[in-house]
Amino acid sequence: MSKQFDVVVIGGGPGGYIAAIRAAQLGFQVACIDEWKNAAGGPAPGGTCTNVGCIPSKALLQSSEHFDHANHHFAEHGISATGVKMDVAKMIARKDSVVKQNNDGILYLLKKNKVTFFHGRGSFAGQAEGGYTINVAGKTEEAITAKQVIIATGSNARALPGTPFDEVNVLSNDGALRVGAVPKKLALIGSGVIGLEMGSVWRRLGADVTILEGLPTFLGAVDEQIAKEAKKAFDKQGLKIELGVKVGEIVNGKKGVTVNYTNAKGEAIVLDADKLIVSIGRVPNTIGLNTEAVGLQLDERGAIVVDADCKTNLPGVWAVGDVVRGPMLAHKAEEEGVAVAERIAGQHGHVNFNTIPWVIYTSPEIAWVGRTEQQLKADGVAYKAGTFPFLANGRARALGDTTGMVKFLADATTDEILGVHMVGPQVSELISEAVVAMEFRASAEDIARICHAHPSLSEATKEAALAVDKRTLNF
Fold this sequence. Notes:
InterPro entries: Class-I_Pyr_Nuc-Dis_Oxidored, FAD/NAD-bd_sf, FAD/NAD-binding_dom, FAD/NAD-linked_Rdtase_dimer_sf, Lipoamide_DH, Pyr_nuc-diS_OxRdtase, Pyr_nucl-diS_OxRdtase_dimer
Number of helices: 13
Family: Belongs to the class-I pyridine nucleotide-disulfide oxidoreductase family.
Keywords: Cytoplasm, FAD, Flavoprotein, NAD, Nucleotide-binding, Oxidoreductase, Redox-active center
Binding site for NAD(+): 190-197, 213, 281
Protein name: Dihydrolipoyl dehydrogenase
Radius of gyration: 24 Å
CATH architecture of the largest domain: 3-Layer(bba) Sandwich
C-alpha cells in the first residue's frame, strides 16, 4: 500500500521546499520529492538556484571581486599587494562548499519541519481515490498518494538551435560555474543576468570577454537611464558588449568555439573563443512529469497553465515558480509556494507581482522594483522623477565606489511611489526599503521624511526621494 500524504511537493527548489515547509507548519502531512544529486550521488535540494544558479554564481562573484580589488584597488588604500594569483580550483572548491552548506541546510529544515523527503524524480501515475498517485524514481521505485499536489519543477537553460550544450566548450549556466581555468577568450550570447554576472567573473580573472546581444538596446527591462549608467561602467571595465547582432553559424571544435555573427552595422564578424556561454533565457521544466497521465494543461511555451492563485486545470493540483507564468526568480517562487500552502489550508495567501524586486549582482549592482520610466510613458501615467548620484554620498566615497545612482518615480498627483531603480554599490540590499515602501503604498515624501543613518549608502535613497520634489540636501 502506497504512503498517503495530505500534500506532495514535486521539486525541492526555492518554490518547492518553502511550500513544503509552510504546508507542514500549517499541520499537513507533507512529502517533498527532488532529484538533484551532489557529486557523491546524494540528495542536493535547492534546485537550480542553490546548485547551478543564484548561490554558486554569488560565490564566484565574491571571489573574483576580492581578486579584482587586490589587483586594482588595494593600492589606493595604502595596501601593497604584488604577485596576486587566483587558484581557480580552490575558488571552485569554495563555491562547491557554499552550495553543499545550502543543500544540507535545506535537508535539515525539511527534517526539522517533519517533511518526508524522497530523493528521486516525481511523476504522475494517475488519479487515485481522493487525490493522485505520484511515482518516485530514485534508487528504488515507489508510489505515494496525495490529496493535494504542488508542482515546483523549475526551468532549464534554453539552448541555441543547432548548438547543444556540451558543458565543455558550449556552456549553460551549469558549465559556466565549473570552468576549471581562466579562458583567454570567452564569448557569451545574451546580455541578461547570467551573461553579465558570468562575464564579470571571468573578466575580473583576466579573460577577454565579449558579450553578444541580439536586441538593439542594453537591458531593455531595466530603466533606460539606469541601464545607460551600468553600460558606461561595464565599458570602462573592459567588458565588451555588442548590441543588435545576428548570430549565425557556431562551430564547436577541439580547440574552442567559433561564432560567426553580423554586427549592428551589417558587418560579418568571426569570433574565436576558448569557451562560449549561452544565456538566452530559460524554459519551463516539465520533462518526465507525465502530465498526460492526468491531463494537466500546458501552454505553447511548455509552462503549466495556472490562474492567479496558482491553481491548474486539475482539482487539488497547483504549480509555482519557473514552471508557470511570471518572472523566473527564486524569491517569486518562494512567495508563490507560501501562498499556495496557505490557500490549501483555507487561508488567503497573497503575492504582489508589482513589488517583486529584481537584482543583477555585477559591479556595480543593478536593482529595481516597480515600473520603469519608459513603461510609465507608454502607459500614459503622469509622474515625477528624482535621482541622486552615489558620487555625492559620503559612505560611497569612503568605500571607494561612487558609481551609479538611485532613482525614484512617483505619481505626479498623489506622490505614490511607482518605481525605484538603482545602480551602484550594494543596491541589492538597498532595494528592500523601496519594496517595503511600495508594498505599503508609501509616497516619495514618506521616504524623504524618514531619518536614515549617516554615513550610509541608504542616504542616497532618501536624497532621491527628496529629489522628486526638487529639494535634495547634498547635491
